[in-house]
Amino acid sequence: MNLLDKITMQKKPPENPPLPQLPVYWIETSDSVSRHFQFQPDGRLSIKLIDDQRSVLHRVIESFQNKFFPSGYPYSVNEGYLRYTQFRALQHFSSAALSVLSTQSLLFAAGLRPTPAQATAVSWVLKDGMQHVGKLICSNLGARMDSEPKSWRILADVLYDLGTGLEVLSPLCPQLFLEVAGLGNFAKGMAVVAARATRLPIYSSFAKEGNLSDLFAKGEAISTVFNVAGLGVGIQLASTVCSSMQGKMVVGPLLSILHVYCVIEEMRATPINTLNPQRTAMVVADFVTRGKVSSPADLRYREDLMFPGRLIPDAGNVKVGQAVHKVLTPSRLRELKDIFPEEKFLLNRRNKCTDMVLEQNASGEDALRGWLVAAYAANMENSSHESNSRVLQDAYEKMNSTYDSFLSELQLKGWHTDRFLDGTGIRFAW
Q1: How far apart are CA 376 and CA 397, in angstroms?
Q2: Is the peptide bond before 313 cis (omega within 30 degrees of 0)?
Q3: Residue 227 · residue 235 · CB < 8 Å
Q4: Cα–Cα distance measured from residue 151 to residue 303, given in angstroms and rounded to the nearest whole number
Q5: Could you read off the pLDDT of 298-332 as tens digits, one per residue?
Q6: Are the beta carbons of 39 and 334 closer than 8 angstroms?
């Protein structure tokens, strides 16, 4: 018996006694953990972790896999990925060991004698170790970086400047060298991961003829040339204006402001063509209010890079990724399943927003359908006194009449509608 059979309200002749309501259940998946939720007939909610009888070894292996392998591994990657990863790990292991020896030798060459140099070398290595801790923590945020690569790229540069600033100020408190330099390297480690993780979606947004590698190579060439030029200017400043701490404290913030301003302008110029909550809401709002389908280039300067989670009234003030049990009651869940049969989304209108939850395998096209319904419903409520459910039903019918042309135009404009990047949003499965 499928779920629709369980939750559809069935009409019976009045002479027959009403059938007892069957339990409503679903599965929510978040951060690779699946939980079974069930509304009992009396309205109580029970939650059970699926496969809770796993052995400790199984849990450790799964935790390791979730942290260090892509979501859906091994089915989400091509053959050879495991061998590539094994040798990549060994490569980094040997490189890190060699860097310790090179650091020690450089300190010796700088005139430090063996005994103090040993302590200095250990402090230096520990300082660098904090960078790796920052990288490890930031690596767990990959899904959010997929959803908002621009915002995370800006945050990466802010973190990098913060870490560099702490290093510049370290001579003011030499007794706290390890703590200050370690914290600086921790921020820089997070910045490195965020910058590298967002590089691919940013370059992909410019690749028009499958020339991603060429774009990447040319971008690295430009970076190398201007890095070398910047090093030359930095050496000149260090020996003149910034030879004192006062000079560093004046020039440093100016360079940091220039740095962050440049990366903000870079990101504003980038036309990301994947669907996330903010871009989906903007596209739907333009279509509903002006009948226009915006391209990625049209939206690039309108995206809110500082607060990407803002709600857009013309798109229905949609909040996506909420847990089902937090936004729906059992009776409301049955009602919505009747309104949206066979759909991979559920919508619940509230006073100030619309909650939307997506099925586990929902695509960008499913999210667009739900967003369109929410936008139409918001507009209808402003000029109608009908019930919430009736408004949703009318909005759903209107969406079905306009969706095909809307989707075709979106794809012609260059949008990738095959997936929806909602970051850490919770999804459900029946």
Answers
A1: 10
A2: no
A3: no
A4: 10
A5: 998 999 998 888 899 999 999 998 888 888 888 88
A6: no
- Whether pLDDT at 20 is above 80: no
Match 């027959």 to its residue by tokens. Answer: 16
For the stretch 23-72, pLDDT in tens is 567 777 665 567 777 776 666 667 776 655 456 676 677 666 666 766 56
What 3 state SS string does the chain have?
A: CCHHHHHCCCCCCCCCCCCCCCCEEEEEEECCEEEEEEECCCCCEEEEECCCCCCHHHHHHHHHHHHHCCCCCCCCCCCCHHHHHHHHHHHHHHHHHHHHHHHHHHHHHCCCCHHHHHHHHHHHHHHHHHHHHHHHHHHHHHHHHHHCHHHHHHHHHHHHHHHHHHHHHHHHCHHHHHHHHHHHHHHHHHHHHHHHHHHHHHHHCCCCCCCHHHHHHHHHHHHHHHHHHHHHHHHHHHHCHHHCHHHHHHHHHHHHHHHHHHHHHHHHCCCCCEECHHHHHHHHHHHHHHCCCCCHHHHCCCCCCCCCCCCCHHHCCEEECCCHHHHCCHHHHHHHHHHCCCCCEEEEECCCCEEEEEECCCCHHHHHHHHHHHHHHHHHHHCCCCCHHHHHHHHHHHHHHHHHHHHHHHHHCCCEEEEECCCCCCEEEC
Query: 280, 148 in Cβ contact below 8 A?
Result: no
pLDDT > 50? residue 340: yes
Q: What angle do CA 144, 148, 150 make, to 5 degrees?
A: 135
Retrieve residue 73's tokens: 């591994």
- Among 266, 283, 278, smallest CA distance to 205 is for 266
